[in-house]
DNA sequence: TATTGTTATACTCTATAACTATA
DNA sequence: TATAGTTATAGAGTATAACAATA
């Protein structure tokens, strides 16, 4: 007897539901792609932002990525402990740390970017380049509706 | 002095990154939309699947939604305790529970669906109906690349 | 032997509140 | 008074392993 196909009911037409499922699929394959590097999703994102903005401080990284200050602490500690990020007191503002990638961090980022390029190709294999561009455009227009991060007054 | 705009670096062209940010924006607004109902994202999804497939059991709900058996237990307990789902031993298979929505569960689901419709309209306000359909199509084609759930042998 | 549901447990991610040191 | 970073902590969400009852 053939397996009956269950319906997802009210979820079927919801963009939010499909966004979640698509993201979840990406997420699993991302982890597989990064296996052995010791870099997870969020630390990779932090390293990307630090590399693109040398001298940036923790709070700014958090605001760019939607991560709270309190949660940045252990993320940066982790990257510093792994020798991927250099943390130094900012001479212009001694409360803040100035962050920049180490040489090892730059190399690790390059390796990660190559792995992730392959991962993205896998996940988007059914979409034409035109459709991939459309997807980025549509997602970008949704993202802009996100609330700003950080403790509101 | 104008605030310098930080770059996200290597993240900028990644569909996975934008998927995550878009989902995150949806997620926050979903929580706000459901405020006061006591229904969160995953329990709502479970209730939707139970309502669409009366008599379904826990394991099947989990497989449809990508939730592990072990994690279904407290989800179903929660919905039963709230009086939204009815759980009875399946007479055809006494290992399994047959799940169906209570009258209260059906009413709660209807209320939730209305709130979520408004939430989706908010989040997709910048997209034409045509673009919304395109988004669902593209996400659906990504979702299909997700691995099947449950303890692989 | 396989499957349904269960318990116990652990790890990641995210959230809040209160603190310090500098500005 | 506001901001950068910190600590402690709590709640979701998700993962594994081992077990009982039933198929």
From TrEMBL, chains A, B:
Residues 12-144 form the HTH marR-type domain. It comes from the Bacteria. Keywords: DNA-binding, Transcription, Transcription regulation. Transmembrane segments: none annotated. Pfam families: MarR_2. PANTHER family: HTH-TYPE TRANSCRIPTIONAL REPRESSOR YETL, TRANSCRIPTIONAL REGULATOR, MARR FAMILY. This is MarR family transcriptional regulator.
């Amino acid at each position: 007897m053939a397996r009956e196909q269950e319906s997802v009911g009210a979820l079927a037409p919801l963009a939010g539901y499909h966004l979640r499922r698509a993201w979840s699929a990406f997420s699993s394959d991302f982890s597989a792609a990064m296996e052995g590097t010791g870099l997870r999703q969020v630390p990779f994102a932090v390293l990307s932002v630090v590399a693109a903005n040398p001298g940036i401080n923790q709070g700014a990284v958090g605001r760019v990525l939607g991560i709270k200050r309190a949660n940045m602490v252990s993320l940066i500690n982790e990257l510093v402990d792994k020798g991927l990020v250099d943390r130094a007191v900012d001479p212009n503002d001694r409360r803040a740390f100035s962050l920049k990638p180490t040489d090892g961090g730059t190399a690790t980022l390059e390796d990660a970017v190559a792995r992730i390029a392959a991962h993205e190709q896998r996940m988007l294999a059914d979409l034409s380049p035109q459709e991939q561009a459309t997807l980025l455009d549509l997602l970008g227009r949704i993202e802009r509706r996100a609330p700003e991060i950080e403790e509101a007054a």
